[in-house]
Amino acid sequence: VANKVSYESLSVKADTALMMDETTGFEFQLTVKVKIKGVSKKVEKEYTEKAYGFCPYSKAIKGNVKVTFIES
């Protein structure tokens, strides 16, 4: 059974960069900023990790793109 959490607002901003690696050539890096207003940082982190775990895009890039989450 899924847990439901009440929140005021949700925003996600993702920035993609194409970086040069001298060993492997070009690679993508993704920086994601998640803000869930109305919940604690602990809950925000927990739900961000859950979403990343089942997101089809996240699964597709796993191991191929460096993903960094930053606190808002």
H/E series: EEHHE
CATH class: Alpha Beta
Q: Beta fraction of the residues?
A: 35-45%
CATH topology: GMP Synthetase, Chain A, domain 3
Counted beta strands: 3
The CATH architecture classification is 2-Layer Sandwich
The tally of domains stands at 1
| Helix-and-strand structural type | alpha+beta
Helix percentage: 25-40%
How many strands, what sense, and barrel or not for the largest sheet?
3 strands, mixed
Walkthrough of the structure:
The protein has helices at residues 41-54, 56-61; strands at residues 9-21, 25-37, 66-71. Strands 1-2-3 form a 3-stranded mixed β-sheet. With 72 residues, the protein is an alpha+beta fold. A hairpin with a 3-residue loop joins strand 1 (9-21) and strand 2 (25-37). It has one domain: GMP Synthetase, Chain A, domain 3, CATH 3.30.300. The longest helix has 14 residues, at 41-54. The two termini are 29 Å apart. The protein is elongated, with a radius of gyration of 14 Å. The mean pLDDT is 91.
Key words describing this protein structure:
2 helices; elongated; three-stranded mixed sheet; GMP Synthetase, Chain A, domain 3; 44% strand
What does this entry show, briefly?
With 72 residues, this protein is of the alpha+beta class.
SSE arrangement:
Layout: E1 9-21, E2 25-37, H1 41-54, H2 56-61, E3 66-71
